[in-house]
Amino acid sequence: MSEPAVLRALLDALPAGSVLSDPDQMEGYRYDRAMTVRPGMPVAVVRAASTAEVQATLRIASRFSTPVVPRGAGTGLSGGSSAVDGCITLSTERMRAVSVDAPAMVATVQPGALNAEVKAEARRFGLWYPPDPSSFEICSIGGNLATNAGGLCCVRYGVTTDYVLGLEVVLADGRALRLGGATIKDVAGYDLKRLFVGSEGTLGVITEATLRLRPLGPLPSTIAATFADVVDCGRAVARIMATSRPAALELMDAAAIAAVERVRPMGFEAGVGSLLIGQCPVDTTEGARLAAACEECDATYVALTDDPAEGELLMGARRMAIPCVERLGTVLIEDIGVPIPRIPALVGAVAEVAERTDTMIPVIGHAGDGNFHPLVTFDPHDTSARARAEVAFDRIIEVALEMGGTITGEHGVGSLKARHLPGQLGADVLELTGTIKRALDPGGILNPGKWV
Amino acid sequence: MSEPAVLRALLDALPAGSVLSDPDQMEGYRYDRAMTVRPGMPVAVVRAASTAEVQATLRIASRFSTPVVPRGAGTGLSGGSSAVDGCITLSTERMRAVSVDAPAMVATVQPGALNAEVKAEARRFGLWYPPDPSSFEICSIGGNLATNAGGLCCVRYGVTTDYVLGLEVVLADGRALRLGGATIKDVAGYDLKRLFVGSEGTLGVITEATLRLRPLGPLPSTIAATFADVVDCGRAVARIMATSRPAALELMDAAAIAAVERVRPMGFEAGVGSLLIGQCPVDTTEGARLAAACEECDATYVALTDDPAEGELLMGARRMAIPCVERLGTVLIEDIGVPIPRIPALVGAVAEVAERTDTMIPVIGHAGDGNFHPLVTFDPHDTSARARAEVAFDRIIEVALEMGGTITGEHGVGSLKARHLPGQLGADVLELTGTIKRALDPGGILNPGKWV
């Protein structure tokens, strides 16, 4: 079998070991964690070790008009890095350097570094990189940047884009650009770095980021409050957000609590309608204010602890929710967002959809941001259940849009939600999106066939 | 004298009173507050009352290839809204509606509303719009959005772009688009709204913004600390930022203190080398930590007060600095930024430039963000002094760039710093800037002849 010309060009241009083309070796690079997305087969996987290797890859891809799918750690939940047929999958997993400039309070990071590695290196200097997707121990900064990842603490501390001072990006034609720098406030020219953040590899490949760090946060107080129903819980969320800035405010509904209890018991009684877990800096009066707000909204149980270990136990259980639910079936993970006053209506509507489609849909969410992950769960061996789950998935997205919300708050559009994007953006914004895309990637080689 | 065709088209399309063409009436719309920028003469000033009138204006401008200079309250410091010859100056001063959705914690705001009006309306609901340029009582939200304005409290609370959830923008061809919405976290598609924020009217005209609000902040503790020299002061800034998140951290050098003392005495002794004014939420221990950091860095005097009135007196004096210096001559206002560790070197270099060019250059700055306003001051009747001031202005910008900094932290590029932008961005980023500009405004009618 003859080698495709593009593969030969990659093998000629890049060091041995940087290019994989054996299907067995490539298999693990085809998928991310969007379990229902069917990936294509790459012509090659490039494991770039440097910006220069990324540039060489993109120059070759441009020359051969070969699609390029950039890839971080492959933990994405929307199929943003799933392969398309005949593509070059461009993995940044070997570009892993992290260097902290403590006096300037910035970290210079290559895209393959894990979020947890950046946190750990910052902590050595008494500093902190806040964005904390639940997958922070296994997800890469490159993926975080590509999706503008959020997490639990962003309700107080902001999302990925809020920490990006500078980027190095490689454009489709192989040119490397530096956008921004290490200065905190900088309004010279367009905010181009934020155009690349969240663009899911469709405008360029991020090869380095200068990330702002903060002083290490204070230890948290943690509250747990249960409610008989989600209406009371939603009222509590609105009241808390109108008066406080919690460092986390997570909601779990009864089905999500039950799924976690089965694996890692938190000790809640059966019949709890919904659970709110909140955190606040321990050196303020906010914890007590959160607890009071929950009591005023008819919480059935409220506990407040200043013990960080107890708090971490609760937050750890919350972070376990998706893996726990995945033990019960294949999961289509929603990532919708709505304005805060719509939370009770949203959770109620999800319950209705679950009933109408006879599908289990536990709900977890970053309630303080109005960002929810209904977990549409089905038996993968039951084709009727899968069909019903797909109906439920689509209907929940429609509900979010009807409420003035979004199809994705932090996971990205990827393949999974691509067909819903026009419904959110509308024709004119979609056209502007295409205009920007064509201006930066005229050959259309960067992560094609997904949402743009 | 015959009426230009574009003026006749505007008069035909827009209600009586929306179009000014009398040179006397237009005079006040030619300038902003960049005192040394020489503005051109518009063919018309359109005082749009609605999005539809903005659209009509841009359609006509496109048809006649007439430049359009969007304008808020005209308080800009960089000449971003100064007229160019033959342009339509498009003022949004009559689009002034502010409406707060308290449960959703957002304000929907037209661009002509003043920053202070948004703050006041939010406060009626116990809510807060933080961005606070020193001119907040007289500057418009439209101008704040166009420049991505900062201010004093952004060191803790962020700049304008951090509060923008949604925008309505009118493109050069007259189409109106809605970007984003009222949802806090939303990663669906490119972050187009943040491309328009800070674009200084070169990509479109913002006709409405959905701004995120916060709970009213706690009252502040205020510290004032003086230092014998700026090296000690710079060390204190770095130490504070490594351990705290002050709600303001302002620096004034000896010349700035003297200029304010002359108008509004703060009671500092002559010979003070530099002054740091900091604020922190009163309900935390941060104020005491700030004071301790100043003492550890050899402050000559440290005072901490929990009295908000006393604190406001100090911050008010700081906000008076530019007007006080303007009594001493014409001022070229710098807006440079550097990484925090470079602060002592920067302030030292400014003093050197002042001496070498025999020019008075008081320095004030948002020290916690590394954003400084050296105030290059000269006698407008002395042509030699003006020439020396211009040399000083340019040299200070070069110094900031040599330190890895920016030519503008919050005021925008405008006309004043346009010729310095290539030095910061470099050829490739400038080319990408042009690519984006041409994609959105192919006729090049939006705020032309400034920096893009």
Quick summary of this structure?
With 452 residues, chain A is an alpha+beta fold. Chain A contains 15 helices and 19 strands.
Write the layout of secondary structure elements.
2 copies of one chain form a homodimer.
Chain A: H1 5-13, E1 19-20, H2 23-27, E2 44-47, H3 51-64, E3 68-71, E4 88-91, E5 98-101, E6 106-109, H4 115-123, E7 127-128, H5 141-147, H6 154-157, E8 164-170, E9 176-180, H7 192-196, E10 205-212, E11 214-215, E12 220-227, H8 230-243, E13 248-253, H9 254-263, E14 274-281, H10 286-296, E15 301-305, H11 308-319, H12 321-326, E16 330-333, E17 336-337, H13 343-356, E18 363-366, E19 371-378, H14 383-402, H15 421-440
How would you characterize this protein structure?
2 copies of one chain form a homodimer. In chain A, helix 8 packs antiparallel against helix 10 (286-296) and helix 13 (343-356) runs antiparallel to helix 14. Chain A has 452 residues and is α+β, with helices and mostly antiparallel strands. Helix content of chain A is 35%, strand content 20%. In chain A, the strands form 4 sheets. In chain A, strands 12, 13, 14, 15, 16, 17, 18 and 19 form an 8-stranded antiparallel sheet that branches. Chain A contains 15 helices and 19 strands. Chain A has 3 domains: 3-91, Uridine Diphospho-n-acetylenolpyruvylglucosamine Reductase, domain 2, CATH 3.30.43; 98-215, 2-Layer Sandwich (Uridine Diphospho-n-acetylenolpyruvylglucosamine Reductase, domain 3); 220-402, Vanillyl-alcohol Oxidase, Chain A, domain 3 (3-Layer(aba) Sandwich).
